[in-house]
Design goal:
Layout (H helix, E strand, L loop, with lengths): L12 E7 L2 H15 L4 E7 L5 H9 L6 E2 L9 H19 L3 E5 L3 H13 L2 E5 L14 H11 L2 E4 L2 H9 L7 E3 L3 H10 L7 H8 L5 E6 L8 H16 L3 E6 L4 H11 L5 E4 L4 H10 L2 E4 L3 H8 L4 E3 L7 H6 L2 E3 L4 H13 L1 H8 L10 H12 L5 H9 L2
Helix pairs in contact: 1-2, 1-7, 1-16, 3-4, 4-5, 7-12, 9-10, 9-14, 14-15
Length: about 400
């Protein structure tokens, strides 16, 4: 199938967005909403539900209603089992819906499967947030390899930063198939941050206990940190709070037992450490706005926090998002207890160091990434205007 030849299409372009986890849903929501109102496009959504509850929360927040729900989440599911089931079910969905273009975002098993299923079906695939690399095959695991595989399988690559563009070009991707768009998370974050919000009673009570103290927001759940690194992270967080009486910590704890066991064993029971269940995206944005500092091994929050002027300490050995570090928004501190305490206290005690990170300009976009992605699709697929489509259909 040629993406460049021929006159304007006489039928709507069917675009299927495939979404599996909460971060994907957040970052795809602006694209899905923009496609839904684009003349000449038939926008469909498939939820794999690789994550169930947290995915549904984002769909509700952005008023997205999946056309297909594969409901793949199962207890204690292994990566091979998830991949095999997802590939079979997504492939059947492509056969049923016959899309002209598949879109998927990021680095999860869902996006890797979307790329492979599209390749098998010989359907064009667009990768949103393309080109992020650590060049360490097992870090983050399995996300780094998922991204590399999708980089080879995708047709169109929507890169968030110039560094991502360069990484794709270095891997041999044609420049005409790479589009510099910015990151769609900025679009989503700005839209939610601008809305009024009051947290529920339970969270309000927790936050009332932090009054007059600097609030540290923690998100940590990376698979490659399981075991000794995670224990070290938790020990560092506890020591940090114990050494600084004017600090409180709030941590929405992932539901994975390999996260919850060390977190509650090491961090529970301290009056200034608040361990809560995972929160919906609107609440996370509220906590980001309210906190002083973010400590995280997550991916997306490395992009979100700088938009709101919050310094980020990255609890990983390496990151596929070095732009924030180069811009001065983030610092890579690893998982060693002493390093975490030292770097956090540097920002807590040195106002100039804190302000340098808080005031750095975010390198991740201007809030118009979704419109650039849709414009690239419309142009590449020669999508007709709504009047052209109506005229062609009336002749059938």
């Amino acid at each position: 199938m040629s993406l460049d030849a021929g006159p304007a299409r006489s039928k709507p372009l069917t675009v299927l967005s495939i979404v599996g986890t909460r971060p994907e849903a957040v970052k795809m929501a602006p694209v899905i909403k923009a496609l839904a109102v684009q003349p000449g496009v038939r926008a469909l959504v498939c939820a794999t539900a690789q994550h169930r509850e947290m995915l549904d929360q984002v769909f509700d927040l952005f008023a997205i209603h999946p056309d297909v729900d594969l409901n793949l989440m199962q207890p204690n599911q292994t990566l091979p089992a998830l991949t095999a089931l997802a590939l079979t079910r997504v492939s059947q969905t492509l056969q049923d819906l016959q899309p002209d273009l598949v879109l998927a975002q990021g680095d999860t098993t869902t996006v890797m499967v979307a790329g492979l299923a599209s390749f098998y079906a010989q359907v064009a695939m667009g990768h949103v947030e393309a080109g992020l690399r650590t060049h360490q095959r097992y870090s983050p695991f399995p996300e780094e390899m998922n991204r590399r595989l999708v980089g080879a399988l995708a047709t169109l690559h929507f890169a968030p930063t110039p560094r991502a563009v360069a990484a794709l070009q270095a891997e041999g991707v044609s420049a005409q198939n790479i589009f510099l768009t910015g990151n769609t998370v900025v679009d989503a974050l700005q839209s939610i941050a601008a809305q009024p919000f009051t947290p529920d009673a339970a969270l309000s009570a927790r936050l009332a206990q932090t009054a007059g103290r600097r609030l540290l927001l923690v998100t940590a759940h990376r698979r490659e940190n399981f075991g000794a690194p995670f224990v070290s992270i938790c020990q560092g967080l506890r020591q940090l709070v114990e050494r600084n009486a004017d600090v409180a910590l709030i941590y929405p704890v992932h539901l994975n037992p390999q996260v919850r066991e060390p977190v509650f064993r090491i961090l529970a029971g301290h009056e200034r450490i608040h361990l809560i269940d995972p929160v919906e995206y609107r609440t996370l944005v509220y906590l980001l706005k309210r906190c002083t500092l973010v400590l995280t091994d997550s991916g997306g929050i490395q992009e979100e926090a700088p938009v709101l002027g919050k310094p980020v300490l990255v609890l990983r050995r390496d990151t596929e998002r070095p732009e924030g570090i180069e811009a001065g928004n983030a610092r890579l501190v690893g998982t060693e207890q002493a390093d975490i305490v030292r770097e956090a206290e540097r920002l807590l005690h040195d106002a100039a160091a804190y302000q340098a990170m808080a005031q750095a300009t975010s390198p991740y976009g201007d809030g118009h990434a979704a419109s650039r992605i849709v414009e690239a699709i419309v142009t590449r697929f020669h999508v007709a205007s709504s009047m052209q489509v109506a005229s062609a259909e009336s002749d059938v």
